[in-house]
Structure formats: C-alpha cells, structure tokens
Predict the structure.
Amino acid sequence: MKFKTLFVLLIALTLTGCSAAGSATALPTVVLDGNSSSGGNPPTRAAPIGSGGAATASGIVVPAQQAHMGFTVAGRIKTVNVAAGDQVKTGQVLAELDNAMVQMQVNQADRNLKELTSQAAIAAAERAVADAQQALQDAQKKTDSMFFPRASDTLIDNTQGEIDLAKQQLARASDAYKPLSRLPDGDSKKAAALVAMTNAQLNLNRLISQYNWYAGTPTDIDAAIARANLDAAKAALQEAQWYLSALKDEQIPADATGSKLAQLQQARDDLAAARERFDATRLVAPISGTVITVNGVAGEIASPVAVFIIISDVARLQVETTDLSERDVPKVQVGQSVTVTIKALNQNVTGHVALISPIADTLGGDVVYKTTIDLDSVPPGLRAGMSVDVQFEGN
C-alpha cells in the first residue's frame, strides 16, 4: 500500500514539472519566408498537453513574413505614401527622399547610352566591320603575294646565274680598288676603281631584289612588316565584331577588348550606378502585407541606420517555439506533426514542423532551439503575438 502511494506521488510530481514550463517572449522577426495553409483539419477545443508526445514547448504566433525597412542613404524625406494599418503590395513605393538631382543623373546616363546604341550607331558599327573585313583581305593578299613565285623556274634560275656573275664582278672590282684606296682623293685611277666597285654592288643588289620578287622570298624586314600588318588587321576586325555584338546585346567573351567597347561598357556602368543611387532614395515593399510602423514624415531628415517602415504579412501566420530544450530537439524533425494549443482561443490546431534553427539560443541559462511550425488551419481570431503550447507528436 505504501509503495502504491509513493508511485502515485511520483506521477503527480512529473506532470507538475511538465506543466510548469513558461512562455518566453519571442524576438521580432526581420524576414521570415514560409506558407501557412488555409485548409486542413478544423480547430478543436483545447485539451491538456500530455506527456505522450516526443516533446513539448511554448511558442508564439508570428507573421510568416516581416520586413524591417530603412533608407541606405541620408536625405530629406520627400513623400511618405503609407500609414500604419495600410495594406501594401510587393513593389509598391512606400516612401521617397528628395532625389531630383539623382533623377537628372539617371536621365543623362540614359541619354548617353541611347546615343551609343542608336540605330545609326549600329549601322556605323556594321560599316566598320565591313571595312575591317576588306582591310584584312588586302593585308592577306599582300602577305601572300610576298611569298608567292612570280616568274617561271627558268627565269628564276637565270637570275640566280646573273647574281653569281655579279658577285664575281664585285669581288674583282673590290680587289682592284683595295691597292688604289691609299691614293689621295681626286686621283683618277682611284676614282675609276671606286665607281666600278660601286656599280658592281648596285647591280648585285638589283639582281638580288629581282630574284626575291621572282621567287617570292622577301627580306626579313619586309616579311616582318607584312605579318605585323596582317595581325593588326585581324585584331581590328575582331574588335569591330565584338563591338557590334555588344551593341546588339549579343554574347561576347569576358576578355573582349576595344576602345569603343570600353566606352559602351562605361556608359552602361554609369547608367547602372545612377539607377542604384536613385533606388537608394526610395523604399519599395519587398512583400505584400500590412504596414505596422512608419517612423517619419515628409520634410524630416532620414537616417541610414534607422528602421523607417515595418511590414508584416499578418494574413499568413506561423508559430515559433521559444523554449524547445536542447534535450528535446533531437526528437524533432522537419515535417513532423504537432498539436498547437492557442491559449487565448482555448483551441487546438494541427500543424507540422517547417524549420529547425541550426543555431542555438539561450533562455534563462538553458540552451534552446527555435522551430517554425506551419498550421494546417488558421482559426478565426488568431493574431500575431498570441502565446501557444506545442506538442510534438512521437515518431
């Protein structure tokens, strides 16, 4: 009998400990993405949370999405288009700074880019491509002609023979001039020997040049100049084609070059930067929802560090736990069914785990993990901020 009484007392103490877990106040949500269902099982009257589930926790009802918005630049507020309680849609302009000067910069950058990308500019770029193609053909022909034989083999061989004779003649003339070179300038014999040697050299040069022309073997310098001109023509054509493709918004390589291409890219960067500066002067709703807070009026100076407008999607509600213990979180997994007791409504609704925070928090010295729960149905009267108890079903 004494043993039975002791057993009953232990059970009573255990139940008392489970029910003593209090609800903690949840921190405001900056942005939460999720979906709450509108169908599913109807809510039922609240029943006491038992100890048969995997785990229990307290929680709070929160909007599925919430956005805290503020200007990223300082400035005088020109307009505030909403007030607390207003319904807004994604993309709606909520407030705007004085941005007339920035708008002028956007307009100027836009005009510059339109001038560079006009139909006349595209036509000029197409003409430049055609001219570059013709220049490349001309350079290619000139290079090819330098290495292409222009005479018969007989004439080439005959010219080679003349070159051999001219070399012998130059050698004899050089030998004849050497002993006379010590004579004083103006000596007739010395002068005649010098003229003979010079004529022999000029004749040899003429024959060599003629042979190279016939045989298609240019000098090293001529060949280098021709190849350089050909490479330059190829590069000019490539840059003209890249520029034309960029004007037409076609794909070009990341390493594409060209002065006109750089000018075009700079114009596009200038417009993008001006638009970014303009966008920084406006607050645009990132989500649809209800305006909760507006911290300013037209004419005031906006601070870039302050929250100006808060939007909450109060039509889509979720539950966040506040004290799920580190000892219980291993029993919880995404998709797991739960029963949520809404204290203010005295009702139970079902749901499932949508998210388990990978980062722990502390509550009164205890380590806890926040879980987000999607409700299978939203009972009438449910509001953000209401406290709940959550029973995680066993697996």
Q: What stands out?
A: The chain has three domains: 21-65+313-392, 69-99+283-311, 118-270.
